[in-house]
Amino acid sequence: MNNKQIDALIRKCEPVMLTVDTGLYFRIAKGNPSWVVKYTLGGKRSQIALPEAYPHCSIAQAKKIAAEIRSQVNTGIDPKSKRQQDKQEVIRNVDDLFQDWYDNDISKRLKHPSIPHRIYRKELKPYIGKLSIKDVNPRNIRSIIQAIMDSQRRSTANQALMYAKQLFRHAVKLNLITYNPAQAFTQSDAGGVCEGRVRALNIDELETVFRVFREQQNIFTRENYLACCLLLSLGVRKGELISAKWQDFDIKKRLWNMPAENKTGVAITIPLPPACMPWLEELYIRACGADYLFPSRRASKRRSYISDDTLNHALAKLFGLKVDGNKQPYDNLLGNAGIEHFTIHDLRRTCRSLLAVMDIQGHVAERCLNHKLKGVEGIYNRHDYLPERKEALEKLANSLAPIFNYQEVDFKNA
């Protein structure tokens, strides 16, 4: 059979199945031409269509592929099974491995898969992302841990090691490697046993901190300043605040109806003290019609609100820490002002401590921070304590407002 004969058959457009070579057939079905290879494996007859049809696959190419299929059958390989295996996603390097792990495991299993995603993207990917999986060795893992430890981030070093172990365990599971290059390392090789943080700021420290914030607006922007005011006054988590949408705020009733997409997985209504309303009004103007209270400050395909690291990095700069790879760090402005190091998350602990100082009952203070009540009380007590939380947060915000508003800003003309 030659090209002219095949072209004539295609023009007729009639159903046909004609032999071209040993096991190779030219078929027209429902007006569509195709190459088909018939074979017998284990006493069972079967057939498989070639991926491309005539004329994209010539007669000569079809014969060559058919010969390869016959060769596979002679060695006991089912060409259909092999094609299905070849269709599986190719995992060439560590980036591909992580994507497969993320798509098929952690995105389905973990409540917050963004955490390992962030650790991989920031800590592991720059060192090993483009390496072949088989080329990653324990020395690569050690270099990653040491780089994190050099930046004095013990907890992050522990996380990076933990996720590296899980990532390469996934590779072993897929039979891509036979040993895990991170497995021999222990917590003592990374950040060690990290004790729970206990840092909380007192009123005198807060006065100094916010004075430095105001004096260094080129480093710590007004939006960052207002975010810290709200974190201390409302007791919410940083992630809950920076991802908040204006549509969830009832300004007239002074309520923030936080949806269930938070750490507890349960929706909650946050009462907004009157002292916080001017800060929210300012943020609304600064948002320029964006959906979020803290819209992204640069074009980003990943999300439309600021990064998880925005506030952390801004605060770290005021402590003289190096957070920008190509820039020299600032002076330790907060340290020079007599402030012991603290983190953004410590503001939440500060909020809880201040509520205790004000003699707010423990169960009310815990609900102010959107903590679940523990033990039997948590099982049977479903009261949301909204009136009590409203009173507690108003008392807290009124005591903090003079510190935050020390320097009034005409934000309408800012």
Automatic annotation (TrEMBL):
InterPro entries, per the entry: DNA_brk_join_enz, Integrase-like_cat_sf, Integrase_catalytic, Integrase_DNA-bd_sf, Integrase_DNA_bind_dom, Integrase_recombinase_N, Phage_int_M, Phage_Integrase
Domain (Tyr recombinase): residue spans on this chain: 196-395
One Pfam short name: Arm-DNA-bind_3
GO MF, any single term: DNA binding
GO biological process: DNA integration; DNA recombination
Keywords of this entry: DNA integration, DNA recombination, DNA-binding
Annotated family: Belongs to the 'phage' integrase family.
Name used for this protein in its record: Phage integrase family protein
Organism field: Moritella yayanosii
